[in-house]
Amino acid sequence: MYGVFVRWLFGVWVLLLLQADLKVTVHPYIHWWASIVILLLALPLLVRLPYALRHWIKIFAISWAGFLILSVFLSSLVSDELLYGLVQAIKLTTILMFAFPLFLGNEGLWRIGISVFPIAVMTNLLFIVLGLTLSPEFAGVMTGDGRWGTLLNYPGSLWRVGMLVIVWAMYEVWNGQKKLYWGLVLLGALALIYLDNSRTGAILAILAFLYTIFVLSLERKTPGTGLVFGVLIGVSLLTWSIASRELGVSGLLLQRAAESLNIALSRGFEDVDPTRYKMIQVALQRIKETGLLGGGIGTTRAETDEGPMVVHNTYLQVWADLGLMGFLSYVGLVVGWILWIPHFFIRVQAIPNISDRAVMYNALFLLLFYAISGLFHPLSTEWSEWITFILPYAAFATIFEKRGGRT
Predict the structure, then answer these.
(1) pTM to 2 decimals?
(2) Residues 70 and 155 in one domain
(3) Per DSSP, what are the bridge partners of residue 140?
(4) Distance (Å, whole) CA 294 – CA 70
(5) Are residues 151 and 80 in the same domain?
(6) Contact in structure between 145 and 351 (CB atoms under 8 Å)
(7) HSE of 166 in the Cβ direction (CA atoms, 13 Å)?
(8) Is residue 357 part of a domain?
(9) Quick one: DSSP state of residue 152?
(10) Which of 267, 284, 310 is the last residue of a domain?
(11) Domain end position, chosen among 252, 267, 282
(12) Coil/strand/helix, residue 361
């Protein structure tokens, strides 16, 4: 009975972590307080769980995580913001040295965590409906360019929730038994991505579509698969576009992405996003100045119209802030899994259960999503960002401990 309670508790915890902007609407440390409470309640069971890190891919990840934390600590020693750096090192240690091995070593826990991804999508969709029907306090347009957000996830994080299930849902719609359910989840995910009106979200949604076509072609080599999903997504986007006047979304999302691409090709990246261009220049200059140790986490900032802001490119920011060791360890952690991709597809295709295959294919896409999104966002030391890496990585790694690809 206690074990069932703890599993339920972990599901609620992950669902809470996925609501990134509760840090703004409720309390800046709500995720940390919730984590402490859940740790205390689950401690009698957790101390008996094995940390089964039996494969090199798991040891590989934990080792890089350790080097990343060490780089945060060492760079803090030469930084003017020593206390801040040490606090960030402690936060990363908690996430990557405790929670990460816990999920890596216990399949039941990461499965519970991943199972709430669709719930997170539908919860945010419910808040959008409540925002339209009851009160804008639940959801509404939050930016001048018509980007939507909810009480749980503001613009910039709302589309990321939809991205958690888009490949999973498409695969289940094509192959699974609960087509109606997963069709609704897919439409919900596309709604969140569209309403957020993020160019990064649009690009990654297209990538998710192409990735799913690739996966299905590996399994069935069905020439009509791309056409079916193309029509499905096209109809979905058309539906949201027609509804955009009522919802307040200014212009087609794909139109914004196309306009940005056109500007990039004709005038260069600087005209597409002057702020990010300036951030990159600041980071490159800082890398030349700070040497091997870096200047300390969060110290590389660019002047913007909204004041000094950390560089919105995790790879360059980490190199400038944490030095060469920080950069190499971060790349090893969030991109190193690519070494196992060929064996991954072979093993997943041997799994007889369709839903298990869907989870695994989705896990690989989320790792790819996390690595790519780092090009547009700064390093985080918060649960809400790292949980979307930890859970997919744990799923991805599990497949290599299974004989014959069975789960």
Answers:
(1) 0.87
(2) no
(3) 149
(4) 12
(5) no
(6) no
(7) 30
(8) yes
(9) S
(10) 267
(11) 267
(12) helix
